[in-house]
Amino acid sequence: MEINGRTRTCGLIGNPVEHTLSPIIHNTLAERMGHNLVYVPFPVEEGRVAEAVAGARALHLLGLNVTVPYKSEVIACLREIDALAQNIGAVNTLVECGGGYKGYNTDMEGLYRAMRSEGIRLEGESVILLGAGGAARAVAYLCVVKGAERVWMLNRTLEKARAVADEVNEKTGRDVICPMRMEDHHEIPAGRYLAIQGTSVGLAPRTEEAVIEDDSFYEKVYTGFDLIYNPWETRFMRLVAAHGGRAYNGLKMLLYQGVIAYELWNGVQVSEEDAQAVYDRMRERLGQTENPTDRA
Ligand code: NAP
Questions:
Q1: Residue located nearest, by CA, to atom 2 of ligand 1
Q2: Going by fewer Cβ within 10 Å, which terminus of the chain is more open, N or C?
């Protein structure tokens, strides 16, 4: 693509941003869809988010993604906020709107599209959600909004799971999230569960760890979805597969949160063919040729 006087710029603010895969998503889509757009990462120092957003506005940037640790802090810098992002309390996408930016959360809808693309449903499901951090909080909200019947939220720190459960149950008006201490997982009633791994345990370089090791836990899991994609196959995924379940990593969640941001910035619909082409490039960048589910 030729960069010229009409090229629009999008980017990512966060700290650190050096290892991001997001430029692959947006620059591949721009190339395939013929948009005059470039996407670049911008490292932002602690305490300078408001300056970064004001600078982006002054430079007329089309949009920004926001990553750790600024997804909540950036809310104070917005002109408008989407209702869903407001409820989750985290924004990962800024879209230019009259005189400022409107904040969205595409992480959650990205996870939902990723699950649907693998044939995983949340409607009427019994879900075990591991973790109660920023990502798990958004997943809990997603599960309730999409009609999960019951969500067992397991966390090392029970108080955090309780706080998230109370908040999500209250905001959605449904009593679906049940908080539980991680080591009490054997108290979950017998059944077949969709398990979503939302803790940071197992993330590279500590790839030989899973937040739960017990066989009795994995016997209840028919599908495991890990939000982590580095390593490509986490220990959690291996344990799910070893007990006969299907296991997925978080790369498609990352893909679709980017696809949805791209759609918001450009007012377009990205085809599944283009999304797949982006996914293949991300996989190549991670040095992977095989889908984790191919062996499940
Ligand atoms: P976070 O807010 O820091 O939360 C971390 C969670 O992990 C908490 O529930 C924490 O429990 C738990 N945890 C950490 N160390 C633990 C340990 N040693 N034993 C047991 N539990 C432990 O992080 P986050 O932003 O939610 O991210 C969580 C994961 O999701 C990360 O691995 C991240 O890479 C991934 N993620 C993926 C995507 C994607 O697009 N695929 C998007 C967002 C996040 P306590 O509450 O007890 O501390």
A1: 133
A2: N
Position 87 in a domain: yes
Reduce the secondary structure of the chain to three states and give it as a string: CCCCCCCEEEEEEECCCCCCCHHHHHHHHHHHHCCCEEEEEEECCCCCHHHHHHHHHHCCCCEEEECCCCCCHHHHHCCEECHHHHHHCCCCEEEEECCEEEEECHHHHHHHHHHHHCCCCCCCCEEEEECCCHHHHHHHHHHHHCCCCEEEEEECCHHHHHHHHHHHHHHHCCCCEEEEEHHHHHHCCCCCEEEEECCCCCCCCCCCCCCCCCHHHHCCEEEEEECCCCCCCCHHHHHHHHCCCEEECCHHHHHHHHHHHHHHHHCCCCCHHHHHHHHHHHHHHCCCCCCHHHHC
pLDDT in tens, 39-87: 999 999 999 999 999 999 999 999 999 999 999 999 999 999 999 999 9
Does one domain contain both 116 and 140? Answer: yes
Q: Could you confirm whether 146 is annotated as catalytic?
A: no
Do 82 and 37 belong together in one domain?
yes
Let me know whether 148 and 166 are in one domain. Answer: yes
Could you tell me the residue range of the domain that residue 265 belongs to?
A: 8-105+252-285
241 and 115 both lie in a single domain: yes
Ligand 1 in contact with 230 (CB < 6 A)? no
